[in-house]
Amino acid sequence: MHLAALCPCQCRILAETRAGRALPGWDRLPRRVRDLHWPPLAVVPSGVTLRAMCSGKLQTALLVAGYFVYLLVGAAVFQALERTAEKQEKMAAAQMKEAFLQNFTQLTVAEMEQFMKNLIEAIQNGVYPVGNESQFEESNWDFSNSFFFAGTVVSTIGYGTLHPKTVGGQIFCVFFALFGIPLNIVFLHRVGKMLSLLCKKLGKFLYEKGMRKKKIKFLTLLFFLATGILVFLCLPSVFFQITEGWSYSEGIYFAFITLSTIGFGDYVVGKQSDRKYFSYYRVLVAIWIIFGLAWIALLFNLLTTVLEDTEKIIVKDLQQIGKVSKDSVGSQQRRCWPVQFIPEEELLPPRAGGDAQKMESLTADSEHTKNEKKVFSNSNTIALTC
Amino acid sequence: MVAARQRRRWGVPVLLAAYVGYLGLGAAVLQALERPAEVQAAQHLLREHWELLTNHTCLQGPALQRLIEGIIQAYKSGITLQGNTTSLGRWDYSGSFFFSISAITTIGYGNLSPSTAVGRIFCIVFALFGIPLNLVLLNEIGQLMLLGVQHCAHRLEEVFHWQNKASFLMKTCALVTGLLLFLLLPPLLFSDKEGWSYEEGFYYSFITLSTIGFGDYVIGMNPDRTYPSWYKNVISLWILFGMAWLALIIKFCINILESSSDFCQCHKQNTEMAEDFMDGNKNSMTGLQNAEISSNKDTKMKEPVESHSYTAPTEAL
User: Fold this and answer.
1) Which of B65, B181, B273, B313 could pair with A224 as two cysteines, CB 3.0-4.6 Å apart?
2) Chain A residues within an 8 Å CB radius of B97
């Protein structure tokens, strides 16, 4: 019979043992884990409760609240920063309209509106009627542009300066992305591995020099951040200053918005009609984007870990402040689902388990099942999913 | 060890070739689909209406050029010059909120984007911390969804004693429900409220939920339509849950891809720590760090601490 133990901190802990009341594997866990989760509150029979896990409701609620607060604060700040500039631009545009109408009085307002409507329709279809007619020969959908577009779809950057307008193109785009995005992620995964190999090599080198572990960690982290920012954000901005004529801050803004895959599309490389670009310009930019995407994914992973650790600390503190009653089984029952609680005294003696095969992976992931089966091959091991 | 490293090095060129090949294929197909329509649009719109208008009003060349450039500039910064109407939510609070969502979910429509220098710097900082926050939240939601499915599957097993069949049935059910709820039914709402066709609504749904976010279709931006007050809030919730669901689907696709590539290159033994670190990286890109990864991390905690000395910075914390 398998037994599951639940820790009072309500995190997703599931301790399995075939030995009965005691949890013999417990003292083999590192102290940090034990301090966080010990002592187990109740030991319950197996079967259904194998997959019963406490849902960490406090953690989730805190996260959702934090997320919405973050959004609200950001919205207020953006509004404050941008509103006045927008008003000024609107006035300038209206003035331009007025001035034009005054200069060409034979044009009525209605005709002007019609003209602008046609023009905007043309722009929305990607045709810019600036300059002479020879520019109409260049297409937005030649192979090089389409290739770049396919890249922006698959990396989920999605600038939007070029987008499919036919129904067939749109539906194809959906299915292309559905298989392209996983392919892209797997690819970037490998590139990220290559990048982190560099950091590991540095760490090994420093370790052999006899530096302490904490110092090595700190230095490799610093190296990772500094070289990444230099190579992927600062240097390309200088490069774009030369080739695109943007200012330095615009270049950094473009670099970050592209590499984080937000991709507003207000700045795009290679799209200015009055500039000459050397022939392998976009290939270079594509290579930069690939490595930059992998680096920024590593950076976001780092920040995510920091965030989750901070969240756990906050939750732990909150629980220590507001603990109601640690030993009340009833309150536990309300917070956990769908667990049945049986006091320790009533436990049945352990039986030799043929139930090992009944255990399925928690996330239905084949890799996870492999790991779990490895972990549970010993009779007294404990799997933690916190 | 050397053999394993050699086998690992095989992976990148093959993957690179597959990646570039896939892009090239997509580019060719899109070109074939879109080019004729583009040519047609250019001819129709410009040649007829444009020339007609210039002939009719006897406008001078340079002034007209300047006007056109001015209009294009205004359009790009999102200002509509037609009439007196202002489209729903530019930089008022509702519009800024929607902008914040599009930034930290990395959708990035672009129909609204900061034009002041301070706004841009703030946008960078805001996104730098907002994107991990969003990833963590999506991870939570995805895990809750998976838990729910597991729970239901187990209930079914209990009641009907179906063993493995219940889990499979539950998963297909969950997939179909998700498809309906997030991809197939919302286009109906959009065709009612926005006036798009069903295919356009479906295209918009997928492009938004996969965070590509072209910005060619954006909800609530039509100045000629009135939207109910609950509209944008419901759509925001839909985006959140839909993104978590689609991230789960994509994660399963990735697992299929990875397991098939492993099969091709006999990578089954490669579970050294060196490679498992980057599983976290992979999952951050899909926004999901499932229990598998955390259990990997935690089982590693039982190993001696020295082995952590050369970890990549992402595992250093």
Assistant:
1) B313
2) 71-72, 75
